Q: What sequence folds into this?
């Protein structure tokens, strides 16, 4: 990282807790791997941590931020306030009752309140505003985890050139499970706003790619995906721990030493099995207790000889499934202890609370078996912490469903649902000769120490810098990147301006189905603002059906609308549509549609869009390789079939469009120029082959802009629709508003 680069960390929770107390605020820092990893980087770069304090207390009270600044010795923590009701729907609702269960493969525990997704959006937007208030163009913005999946795209919209990274701490599930999520498309689009998206394991990354393909129709390479002309990098970067912090406690902390001695005495004649988890249904606590009961039943010689210490740290207690789990675990512990205890032996020591770090570290150090068997986990740091702290006599029994299993092959890997087999493995672990235990533990420890959390953080930021740099570089063989300042200044100086804009892929991103691409309210407002100055002549030149264009943009009085590549137009200042091509025969259509219907049969998910003068076969939602293959075949058949007509088939963006040769966007431009050729600022933006006809009508000194990569005759390019929207906003900002005369028309 260069010395001027500053890091902005954004996570749901700030790593501090705030409590009001007499005369001010009580602030306590939270411990944890993430804070440990981020702290040195934030310090080095004079960075910021943006997050929610966890409750609404003190919103609008300036003394709170002052207290936190004074406590932190500078303004390093930025508080995001979320109103209580929104917070409940965002955090306990969509984050923890919808995304969390689903991403951990518990669809049966998913509950979805339709109000929760808007609240999630609103909360993400509040984070966005907080970041924007502080962000500078050179910052590296690092967004963490599943509560903030919409944030990268929100930031990208506002700052198209920002350097944004996203890390998902929890698993990304199989696309078959992911597809059950209400809001799935938005979440995918949301994270794709980042330059780098990183996961705990390769498996999660692969699932993400498969969701991109199956749900958004986006093909990707192993570590890269193109979205609207921008490339997004994808990486597997498993998080680590801070081994030095644990070592320090073990080597120099007196309290940790005292606890160790205490536990050594207490468990002198017994083997210690140790588990610590948040009390969460993903952690497999009931399955572990059932396994333990099975072990005591089937290996009676272990009775009185082993103790399971289970610490369950209270978590999300207001969510019903967690309350149920708590009762269930209490009952199971009671049953086991009731069944097997003797006056001098209690088989399960159960603590439903957190313990201090020294206590935790002492237990890690002493435990004979680290029993870490989540039913699903992004990584699981307990497994790594146990290895870092253990004195070398212990054995790690680890669930193969934890992300950590991918890196910890020397552990005993188990399927936690398979109770009998796991019980056998626990027994084997206890019986393992000491030299083998040491060998395994040493190998694991070396890896945990090497792949520590500091490396993880550095690696993430390096990859983010690389990804952002390659986005900013001009793609090979392409026109030059449009210089925003130059074009805005030309716009400002002009006496009369023409702006020709395509819609799909230019002003708005592509979606799975054509009808889902309705313009957002801010986009409509932007177009309205743009068409307001009397010297502006804004034309929306689209290949879409007239109905869509009328429905979406009909309300904007000043704009010129062209649908179906100009077969229909609505001139400047007019409310009436004019059919520019009449009396041509459409009798090729039934034959073509019949053929396309066969292709729809063959490629489930593909669809036919019929317009007045053309027909389109869309295959964005089909299996991609199969779709490309069928498209090539279709064009071949159509070329033969239409050879005697003036109709042709053209390959578009994931579609094949069949239309008469004499309908094209160039004609629209020609007509507009006939009436307004005196415009001294001419701007056209488009993203696909049909827009090339538009560019062809303009001269080399005009502002022609291709959106995204690809062959073009345009003079400039912009990476994606967000850049176009940002540019249009700049245009409107440069204008002094005035009224447009109603009479202007082509
Ligand atoms: P978690 O689901 O919270 O994290 P985990 O990785 O096991 O799960 O981390 C638990 C952390 O809490 C450990 O660092 C542990 O030391 C700490 N802890 C336990 N008891 C404590 C106590 N009493 N007081 C303070 N701290 C205590 C999510 C994902 C995981 C992923 C992590 C990090 O679910 O899969 O590994 O993020 O990316």
A:
């Amino acid at each position: 990282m260069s010395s001027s680069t500053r890091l902005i960390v954004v996570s749901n929770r700030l790593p501090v807790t705030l409590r009001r107390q007499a005369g001010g605020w009580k602030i306590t820092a939270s411990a944890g791997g993430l804070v440990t990893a981020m702290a040195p980087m934030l310090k080095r770069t004079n960075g910021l941590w943006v997050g929610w304090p966890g409750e609404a207390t003190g919103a609008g009270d300036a003394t709170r931020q002052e207290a936190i600044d004074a406590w932190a010795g500078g303004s390093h923590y930025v508080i995001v306030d979320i109103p209580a009701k929104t917070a409940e729907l965002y955090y306990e609702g969509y984050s923890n009752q919808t995304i969390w269960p689903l991403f951990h493969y518990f669809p049966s525990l998913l509950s979805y309140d339709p109000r929760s997704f808007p609240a999630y959006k609103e909360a993400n937007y509040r984070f966005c505003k907080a970041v924007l208030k502080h962000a500078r163009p050179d910052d590296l913005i690092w967004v963490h985890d599943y509560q903030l999946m919409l944030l990268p795209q929100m930031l990208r919209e506002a700052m198209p050139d920002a350097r944004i990274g996203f890390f998902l701490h929890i698993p990304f599930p199989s696309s078959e499970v992911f597809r059950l999520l209400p809001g799935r498309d938005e979440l995918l689009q949301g994270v794709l706003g980042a330059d780098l998206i990183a996961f705990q394991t390769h498996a999660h990354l692969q699932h993400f790619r498969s969701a991109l393909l199956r749900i958004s129709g986006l093909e990707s390479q192993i570590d890269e995906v193109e979205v609207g002309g921008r490339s997004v990098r994808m990486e597997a970067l498993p998080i680590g721990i801070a081994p030095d912090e644990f070592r320090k406690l073990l080597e120099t902390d007196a309290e940790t030493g005292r606890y160790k001695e205490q536990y050594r005495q207490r468990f002198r004649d017994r083997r210690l099995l140790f588990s610590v988890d948040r009390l969460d249904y993903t952690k497999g606590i009931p399955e572990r207790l059932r396994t333990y009961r099975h072990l005591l039943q089937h290996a009676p010689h272990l009775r009185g000889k082993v103790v399971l210490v289970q610490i369950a740290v209270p978590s999300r207690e207001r969510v019903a499934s967690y309350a149920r789990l708590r009762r269930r675990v209490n009952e199971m512990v009671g049953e086991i202890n009731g069944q097997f205890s003797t006056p001098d032996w209690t088989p399960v020591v159960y603590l439903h609370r957190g313990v201090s770090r020294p206590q935790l570290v002492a237990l890690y150090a002493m435990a004979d078996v680290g029993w870490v068997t989540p039913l699903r986990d992004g990584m699981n740091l307990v497994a790594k912490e146990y290895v870092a702290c253990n004195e070398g006599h212990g054995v790690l029994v680890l669930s193969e469903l934890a992300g950590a299993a991918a890196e910890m092959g020397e552990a005993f890997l188990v399927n936690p649902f398979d109770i009998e087999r796991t019980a056998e493995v626990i027994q084997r672990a206890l019986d393992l000769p000491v030299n083998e235990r040491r060998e395994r533990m040493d190998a694991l420890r070396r890896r945990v120490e090497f792949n520590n959390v500091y490396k993880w953080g550095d690696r993430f930021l390096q990859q983010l810098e690389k990804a952002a740099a390659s986005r900013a570089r001009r793609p090979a063989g392409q026109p030059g990147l449009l210089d925003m300042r130059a074009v805005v200044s030309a716009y400002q100086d002009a006496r009369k301006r023409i702006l020709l804009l395509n819609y799909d892929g230019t002003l708005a991103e592509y979606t799975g189905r054509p009808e889902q691409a309705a313009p957002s309210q801010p986009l409509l407002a932007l177009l309205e603002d743009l068409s307001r100055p009397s010297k502006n002549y804004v034309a929306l030149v689209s290949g879409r059906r007239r109905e869509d264009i009328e429905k979406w943009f009909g309300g904007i009085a000043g704009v010129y609308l062209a649908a179906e590549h100009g077969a229909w137009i609505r001139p400047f200042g007019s409310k009436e549509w004019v059919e520019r091509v009449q009396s041509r025969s459409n009798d090729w259509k039934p034959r073509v549609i019949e053929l396309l219907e066969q292709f729809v049969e063959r490629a489930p998910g593909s669809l036919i869009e019929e317009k007045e003068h053309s027909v389109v076969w869309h295959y964005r939602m089909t299996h991609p390789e199969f779709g490309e293959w069928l498209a090539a075949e279709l064009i071949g058949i159509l070329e033969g079939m239409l050879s005697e007509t003036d109709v042709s088939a053209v390959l578009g963006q994931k579609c094949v469009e069949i239309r008469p040769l004499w309908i094209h966007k160039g004609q629209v431009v020609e007509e507009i120029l006939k009436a307004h050729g005196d415009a001294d600022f001419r701007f056209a933006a488009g993203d696909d082959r049909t827009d090339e006809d538009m560019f062809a009508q303009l001269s080399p000194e005009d502002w022609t802009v291709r959106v995204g990569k690809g062959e073009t005759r345009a003079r400039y390019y912009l990476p994606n629709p967000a850049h176009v929207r940002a540019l249009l906003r700049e245009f409107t900002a440069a204008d002094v508003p005035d009224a447009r005369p109603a009479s202007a028309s082509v």
